[in-house]
Amino acid sequence: MSKKNKKLLPKIGVAALSSPLEIGAGRAPGVAAEFTDKLAAAGCTVINLGALQNIRDSRRAGMKLYDERAAALLAVPVSWYEDYLIIDLLEEWPGPLLLWPLPGLETGALCGAQQNMSFLKRLHHPAEYVFGEPNNRQCLEQAMKFFRAAALAKIMRRAKIGLAGHRVNGMTHTSPNEFMLKRDLGVRVIPLDLPEILAGAESQSEPTAAEKWHELCSAAGSCNVSEPEGIYSVKMYFALKKAVEEKELDALAVGCYPQLMGKVCLAASLLADDGVPLACEGDVNGAAAMLMLNRLSGEAVHNCDWLEPIGRDTVLFTHCGSGSFSLAQKREDINLASVRLMGQGVCAQFPSKPGPVTLLNLTPGENGYLSAVLEGKAVETEMLFPGNPLKVRFKTPLSEINDWIFSNGLGHHWMAAYGNYFPEIKYWSQISGKNLNRKNILALN
Fold it and tell me: In terms of CB atoms within 10 Å, which of 18, 76, 137, 380 comes out highest?
């Protein structure tokens, strides 16, 4: 399946719930059809399960959801209903669900949803609710965030991250706890043989790599590296892409510092456009965060160090220059240059474009992974650092943010996506399991 960047398209089941004796029960089939159309218009693939009024309906719906591999269920109570309608369904398909009871003075739909949620909470089952008319825009927006989170959980549960080399010596917080990573996030680590990848790069076709290099030079604003360096960097891209395809990987982490600095940066830029995030310095946790943000945003994401405050409310984030060309403020600003400190390889250096951003840091803690989220606004910046400087302004005072980072023991790698995704990340944590819960989700803006 292609991993090209695109927005999540959740596959969602829709069912209307009622008890035959209650007022409003006759609306159920029409309501199910109405919500099917609404979710389809919002970008979902929708399974219309119709009206659920008895155990047989529920079991049939649950088996359909299982067969279709649905990410979540929208259950719409149109009247009071027995809570076993959902419980029996979940016996066949134990996925996350959102209750959307419809208003009605005599229907009892809200009462039914409340009693159902009481049962679900005691089961620790991932469930949320909204309350409003079918045309309530705010309810639909909240529901879509929940459904995107459910789709993300399904993606992460099957995700594989290739690790080539090892994490940087002295950067312990980037070490993945593979058991905890699988338990909490769903991600599996696939070790890659770095000598094999390096040999694979050397064996790539010279003419094909040269053609790609000339194409990249034309797409950039300027180039200040030799052609042999550029061609080798393209060969490294081809070698890593081959590993991704052979191992069916969703993301990569490469131990680049210090010997491979600059040698894999261009590959990271190009793989980002293929929908395969690559984290520097062997940071598997960072690669998982990049993958989450990439799938939520449908776009390439930044791989950043928390570098330095600028003024009272702004922080400069950056890395050496491994970002996608699409992250640049202006195409003509993109400079293909050698990496700082080592003076080798190829980096795509440019000031990053402005816009609202979500920054995510995943760090293994004592009781599970911590998911730390910051929301801010990227503002226009100059080339303040030879890499991909991202200048982010926050509403929260920087002194408070620093206290938050140090008190929670968060690492220095932050992944950034354009857009606001904290609600989805919060819902994802509840859907993914008991170890990722509200106390393990940290957020500031």
Answer: 18
The answer to whether 299 and 274 have CB atoms below 8 angstroms apart is no
Domain boundaries, the chain: 11-157, 160-296+304-444
Alpha carbon distance 389, 391 (integer Å): 6
DSSP string, 211-276: HHHHHHHHHSSEE-S-HHHHHHHHHHHHHHHHHHHHHT-SEEEE--TTTTTTTSHHHHHHHHHTT-
Determine how β-strand 251-254 pairs with β-strand 160-164: parallel
Structure tokens at 392: 């982010």
Closest to 366 in 3D by CA, of 444, 440, 284 = 440
Specify whether the CB–CB gap between 230 and 336 falls below 8 A.
Answer: yes
Architecture of domain 11-157: 3-Layer(aba) Sandwich (3.40)
46-70 tens-digit pLDDT: 999 999 999 999 999 999 999 999 9
**Are the CB atoms for 316 and 439 separated by under 8 Å?**
no
Q: What is the pLDDT of residue 439?
A: 45
**CA nearest 100: which of 54, 70, 140?**
140
For the whole prediction, is pTM greater than 0.85? yes
Least Cα distance to 356 among 310, 401, 292, 416 occurs for: 416
pLDDT in tens, 378-388: 999 999 999 99
Residue 345 dihedral angles phi and psi, to the nearest 5°: 70, -160
pLDDT score recorded for residue 440: 55
Please state, in angstroms and as integers, the Cα–Cα distance from residue 379 to each residue in 27, 343, 351, following that order: 50, 29, 10
pLDDT of res. 2: 54
Q: Are 381 and 351 in contact (CB under 8 A)?
A: yes
Kindly state the DSSP code that residue 280 receives in the 8-state scheme. S
Contacts of 168-172 spanning 24+ positions with Cβ under 8 A: 168/255, 168/257, 168/281, 168/282, 171/281, 171/282, 171/283
> Which residues touch 345 (CB under 8 Å, ≥6 apart)?
225, 229, 232, 233, 260, 261, 262, 263, 264, 265, 266, 338, 339
Token pair, residue 303, equals 């791989």
Q: Mention every residue, 6+ apart, whose C-beta is less than 8 A from residue 386.
A: 320, 321, 337, 340, 347, 349
Q: What is the pLDDT of residues 297-341, one digit of tens each?
A: 999 999 999 999 998 899 999 989 999 999 999 999 999 999 998
CA distance 362 to 292: 10
Whose CA is closest to 268, among 280, 260, 284, 259?
A: 280
Work out the average pLDDT over 356-364: 95
Helix (H, G, I), strand (E, B) or coil at 382: coil
State the Cα–Cα distance between residues 144 and 442, nearest whole angstrom. Answer: 22
